[in-house]
Amino acid sequence: MTENSTPIATRERTVDGFVREFLRELNFGQGVDLSRASVNDQYLAMARTVRHYLMVRWLETLRRQGELQAKSVAYLSAEFLLGRQLDNALLASGLEDIVEEGLSSLGIDLATLRDAEVEPGLGNGGLGRLAACFIDSLATMNVPCIGYGIRYEYGIFQQTFVDGWQVEKPDDWLALGSPWEFPHPEAAVRVNFGGSVEQYQADDGVVRRRWVPGWSVLAVPYNYMVPGFENGRVNTLRLWSAQATHAFDLAIFNSGDYAEAVRAQTFAENITKVLYPEDSTPQGKELRLQQQYFFVAASLKNFIDEVLPEGFDLHNLPDRINFQLNDTHPVIAIPELMRILVDEKGWDWDDAWSVTSKCFAYTCHTLLPEALEVWPVDLLGRLLPRHLEIIYRINDAFLAELRQEYPDDELRVRRMSIIAEYPVRAVRMAYLATVAGTKVNGVAELHSQLLRDKVLNDFSEYYPDKFTNVTNGVTPRRFVRLANPALSGLITEAIGDGWVTDLDKLSGLEPLAEDAEFRRRFREIKLHNKHRIADVLATRDGTVVNPDTMFDVMVKRLHEYKRQTLKLLHIVSLYEQVTSGRLDIGSVTPRTFAFGAKAAPGYLLAKQIIGLINAVGRTINEDPALEGRLSVVFPANYNVTLAETLIPAADLSEQISLAGKEASGTGNMKFMLNGALTIGTDDGANVEIRRLVGDEHFFLFGLTEPEVEQLVDRGYHPSAYYETNASLRRALDLIASGAFSNGDRAVFEPIVSNLLHEDRFLALADFQAYIDAQARVDAAYADPEQWTRSAVLNVARGGFFSSDRSMRDYIDRIWHTPPVPPA
Ligand code: AZC
């Protein structure tokens, strides 16, 4: 690196240097002076200043990448749930101390600026947040990676409560400025849709087919920095925004039809207008398929035309890139690459297939059959006619192969067809990804096993080597180092700071679980974190929580399979026993039950459950007899930012999905690493958490996956549990009586009757086991020394759940992309 190419970063890493840079940004970037600057002005200037410090590293990373042409990962994901950027950028660049001091010399409080940042909520939940953790880890591990996704103008909706019911508001996250992005309108690429396919005679005399699109839009890239932790590497996240090819029709405008004049523009820009808020029940909406093809087509084109050097021989593409498909959303990339190679480059089919089938790998994030995306062929054919043809041809070849392998098993062949025939003819995207991908992975051991043995069983028999597991992980930078500064300080004091990039080092804390003084400090930190969230909730919502209680926390999307209702039945049962006088409040472990959950706007039962949680919460919180001992908090709009203060305060982590339904979970890992104990079923990554931490430090309950299957096969009758279990009956009767709805029995009737007559996720079957496990929790909590010992061991044994480890597994098992040496 020459001296000239490092203007800011190396020369001005001092408090004075930072202050100068900051004031310059405030004056020349925001156009205000300090005395008149709003908090938002200060935040924007601050963000840009920090950005400058990373810039040299970013440019250097790009330059070296161009030079080395090392094998990279392109992480294709319709969602990146990034969370706030400022703190992460400060941490990565090692500027925290300088900045804090510099700002305070100007009379500015860094915390106030932090709070001014609106988080980019460009994802629904697990899968989107996982993508954000993964790109953080790859940057930190010096692995070349480019993230490709969608720049939604509106992210995941803002949740508010009106009388306890969820009301969604648009998430206008760009309204106050977006200092972390770099738009490149000059690098926009055209993405086509619709039209038809024609046959023509090419120059070489061969008859070929090509797409004659009906309409197109521009994809404008917005680049984001993805800084590694203190290693000087800055990878890129490229999010695409849709723009019309022509702004508007001047002739129509002049004739006075203003709405018509901008129609095309509005239509095009709708593609990236808003994130679909369905998590795990995709709606087969045309706009959603448009979004998927839009970002994937732009990304492939960008990679081939811009990232690869000129003249690159695409036969070598598999040596240069892995396109990782984050769930089925980007799977349309497979026929798109075939189309590019066959139609645009003129390759023959077999050559194109041989390259394409080496470039992609697919991660599945679900076990719910309804979450596996399927696109009706009439819709797909209308929007992407050539891609549909290509998919049919891929399927023809695949079925022919299968018939050779299974000559007498036409039933199996049909089962495995990429094209489903019922209820409508449709493309099964997971099957397409499995046929074309080099690998298919689940996200926890149990999940991968169930994929192999059940969901994709035919495929795992046919392609035994394709199937693998990579257990999820979370980034310790954001979810420990930043989210829990007090605990981080204690850990660093005990074992040094190497754990931030090598989380296995946490095992060094094991002996300290036996050290009374260490445990005392650990407890003190937990209490401190409870006060911290109590302050946040008091300021944000005016909610009062008592830090001197057990924090029992369940935060995740609202879904029946996750069983928030089971948690609720526990609470209602406790309340019922106390108010009916069968249980003395003095003998109840004081608890604060905390929920956080958004429901998909169209998921009515989930929204009712939110209403019920709030109604029960209101009743309990208003009961003077319970004051200070039992309370329920449900802060609206649970998001990454709230998670960062809530999780470090938790004592008990609720991971109570029905066994065999939660693919992995990642919240469970964040809680563990922040010293909460888990009450959980044998599901997803809970299985691995329990194995690592040990049975004595984990509260296991409930049916196992095979038991669930047996029970369902035998015929599950939830009402039988209601009839034979008195406390369950009393709890359900209390809800049904209208006790939480001013006597109105109709309000929560659908929830009660669903539980009694359907209960798809066996909440009633697991009720008693859950109550018993909660009694074990109470007993354990009564001994603070033993509890803290377990909590410390949870941290010490949680190193496996770093997303750095997940990335190593992807690299070893799927990508084979070695890190490049640091600059
Ligand atoms: C989630 C899974 O539900 C969760 O168990 C997992 O930890 C997470 O992905 C990351 O792998 N799934 C989703 O968010 N969405 C879909 C469509 O599965």
For this entry, give a set of tags.
Rossmann fold; Glyco_trans_35; Alpha-1,4 glucan phosphorylase; EC 2.4.1.1; single chain; binds N-(acetylcarbamoyl)-beta-D-glucopyranosylamine; 3 domains; ten-stranded mixed β-sheet; disordered N terminus; pyridoxal phosphate; 1,4-alpha-oligoglucan phosphorylase activity; about 800 residues; alpha/beta; six-stranded parallel β-sheet
Model description:
The protein is α/β, with parallel strands linked by helices. The chain folds into 3 domains: 91 residues, no CATH class; 376 residues, Glycogen Phosphorylase B (Rossmann fold, 3-Layer(aba) Sandwich); 285 residues, Rossmann fold, CATH 3.40.50.2000. The protein is built from 34 helices and 25 strands. Strands 1, 4, 7, 8, 11, 12, 13, 14, 18 and 19 form a 10-stranded mixed beta sheet that branches. Helix 29 crosses helix 30. The longest helix is centred in the first third of the chain and has 30 residues. The structure holds N-(acetylcarbamoyl)-beta-D-glucopyranosylamine. The site of N-(acetylcarbamoyl)-beta-D-glucopyranosylamine has 18 residues, from helix 6. Keywords: Carbohydrate metabolism, Glycosyltransferase, Pyridoxal phosphate, Transferase. Belongs to the glycogen phosphorylase family. InterPro entries: Glycg_phsphrylas, Glyco_trans_35, Pyridoxal_P_attach_site.
